[in-house]
Amino acid sequence: MVNFLQRFLVFLNIYSIFADGYSFNNDEHTENIHPFIKIGSKYYFINELLKMNWFESYNYCRSYGGELASVESHEELLALQNYILARKIESRFWFDGNDLAEEGKFVSHTTGRPLIFNKWSQNNPNNVNNEDCLEVNLYNKELLMNDINCNVENIAICKYREPNTHCSGKNSLMNQNEVCILRNLVESFAQVGHRCKSCSQAFMFPTS
Ligand SMILES: [Ca+2]
Ligand SMILES: [Ca+2]
Question: Which of 78, 97, 166, 179 could form a Cys-Cys staple with 134, CB 3.0–4.6 A?
């Protein structure tokens, strides 16, 4: 038991070093995320002066600690629509999504999964002349999605990449990332340690 607890203390030290670079506190991450600004409930960065193709836009967003934007609800799309209308930005915008891997099957390039929310413009996606990348555009002041040639130059809408805070212990180990696995392990060990206060003296000052 003493050896086990000594190893746990070493593990905690390693974890504390590791965790310095991976804060789990969402609030800490929203204090200094320049140049992202809050639009609706999420944080975005839209450089109105720069137009790029889809691939350049994807890399551009990542270089700022973000991802090409995606939305999870109509409310999030509306928030972006209202922002673009208020700013009077006359352009098309890149979003995270393409059907490069399988025609007609649009997936997020960030997650590899189908788009969580979509709202296509009329008759789209239509793959005219092999359109494979996802843009959003104002149609009668309504922000809607369209598939278009990936080499067209649009403005990128970047979304702040939020830290993964979904560390439910109910998920299988295979579905958790390294941070969640470490976090759950530490929490489990901490619970054991809490129940074993009576032996804390032993592992803090082990006898030879
Ligand atoms: Ca296509
Ligand atoms: Ca189209």
Answer: 97
Residues in the chain: 208
Reply yes or no on domain 34-160 having CATH 3.10.100.10.
yes
Q: How far is the CA of 31 from the centre of ligand 1 (A)?
A: 39
CA 171 / ligand 1 centre spacing (Å)? 34
β pairing state of 66-68 and 37-39 = unpaired
The per-residue pLDDT string of the chain (208 residues; one tens digit each, 9 = 90 and over) reads 444 444 443 344 333 323 333 333 344 444 578 899 999 999 999 999 999 999 999 999 999 999 999 999 999 999 999 999 999 999 999 999 999 999 999 999 999 999 999 999 999 999 999 999 999 999 999 999 999 999 999 999 999 997 765 565 554 555 555 656 666 676 666 666 555 555 555 445 454 4
Query: What is the amino acid identity at position 45?
Result: F
Residue 183 to residue 190: CA distance in whole angstroms:
10
- The ligand with the least distance to the CA atom of 124 is 2
Ligand 2 center–CA 37 separation, angstroms: 29
